[in-house]
Backbone:
């Protein structure tokens, strides 16, 4: 009788456990590091917790530590850690509107191109490189009218790219020297800014849509104070909608980092970077954007290509290839492409559709393989 009584009591206690303790849709007080899709601060509003649950469950598990999410249509943003969200709000209060959302860039125009406009970049790979010797690219990229760059694009059917990187240091490996110019009667500069970034192309009908994200160098002296923490490589979006995003994470110059870009769910894009923070501590951060369904980005990558770009960007339509800005020793290593996690393979001739430079005289490449190269870029002849 005693054994039966204990079993009955245990049965009653099990029935008394609130369902929300074990439910995936648990109350905010039950959300912790034990939740399968990653930590979400229970102090966040319920709306933010719901958004983050939906977003984070699609991310690679290793990308769920520090997550920042942006809705490119509305500018709504949140993060899984309250302290990180508050830091971001304090740093970027000037780009947050009265409604609490990120402001839109009134000058934004999607960088979509017709398929025919991209054809000259698909004529083949740079075939004359000698292994481990610097040379100018032989294949020219289309001009973006905004500074010199090196670009490598995968074959179709890819939605993910990963790479080990070396991030050059100011002064010893990189100097930005923009020129003063007048635009619409106002004094400004050519805005020379170093970028190392990745992204994707997707063909919808006769139009190629693009999404880009990566690292921008905060050179200092007010070149782009929106992204300051000075003299760091900052995570940012480049062509991810009209929202002004700022940067939720900054990485120390002269260090190594790991970068990953992928489509975690249809109509989303994610950038994850692991490396060293300015104070020397380890840092991993992930940015996730929703992407307009009209652009057709999918995890399967059926009509997609992924890409990597090293550039010195300048003010659009005010390109000046004589300013003398340069960035040396950008190292891309172990570059892999694929679709879902685990499908990645090292880039080679069979998974690379194009490798080009703009202008070819402004780029030098020390080419080892399509998975490994060192790049120099200059707004001047190399």
Residues:
């Amino acid at each position: 009788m005693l054994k039966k009584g204990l079993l009955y009591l245990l049965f009653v206690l099990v029935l008394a456990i609130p369902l929300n303790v074990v439910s995936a849709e648990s109350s905010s007080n039950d959300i912790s590091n034990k939740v399968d899709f990653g930590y979400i601060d229970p102090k966040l509003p319920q709306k933010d917790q719901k958004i983050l649950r939906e977003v984070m469950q699609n991310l690679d598990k290793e990308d769920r530590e520090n997550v920042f999410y942006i809705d490119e249509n509305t500018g709504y943003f949140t993060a899984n850690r309250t302290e990180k969200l508050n830091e971001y709000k304090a740093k970027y209060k000037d780009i947050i509107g009265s409604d609490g959302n990120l402001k839109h860039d009134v000058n934004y125009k999607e960088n979509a191109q017709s398929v025919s406009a991209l054809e000259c970049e698909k004529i083949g790979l740079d075939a004359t490189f000698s292994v481990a010797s610097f040379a100018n690219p032989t294949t020219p990229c289309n001009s973006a009218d905004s500074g010199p760059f090196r670009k490598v694009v995968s074959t179709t059917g890819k939605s993910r790219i990963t790479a080990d990187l070396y991030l050059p240091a100011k002064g010893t490996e990189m100097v930005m020297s923009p020129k003063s110019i007048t635009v619409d009667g106002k004094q400004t500069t050519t805005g020379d800014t170093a970028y190392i970034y990745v992204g994707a192309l997707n063909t919808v009908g006769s139009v190629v849509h693009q999404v880009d994200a990566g690292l921008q160098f905060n050179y200092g002296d007010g070149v782009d104070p929106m992204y300051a923490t000075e003299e760091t490589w900052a995570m940012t979006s480049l062509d991810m909608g009209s929202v002004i995003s700022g940067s939720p994470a900054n990485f120390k110059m002269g260090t190594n980092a790991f970068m990953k870009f992928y489509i975690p769910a249809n109509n989303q894009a994610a950038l994850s970077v692991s490396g060293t923070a300015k104070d020397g501590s380890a840092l991993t951060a992930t940015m996730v954007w929703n992407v307009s369904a009209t652009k057709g980005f999918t995890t399967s990558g059926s009509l997609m290509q992924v890409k990597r770009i090293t550039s010195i960007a300048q003010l659009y339509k005010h390109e000046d290839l004589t300013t003398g800005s340069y960035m040396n020793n950008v190292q891309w290593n172990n570059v892999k492409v694929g679709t879902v996690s685990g499908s990645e393979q090292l880039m080679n001739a069979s998974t690379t559709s194009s490798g080009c430079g703009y202008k070819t005289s402004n780029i030098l490449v020390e080419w080892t393989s399509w998975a490994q190269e060192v790049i120099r870029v200059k707004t001047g002849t190399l």
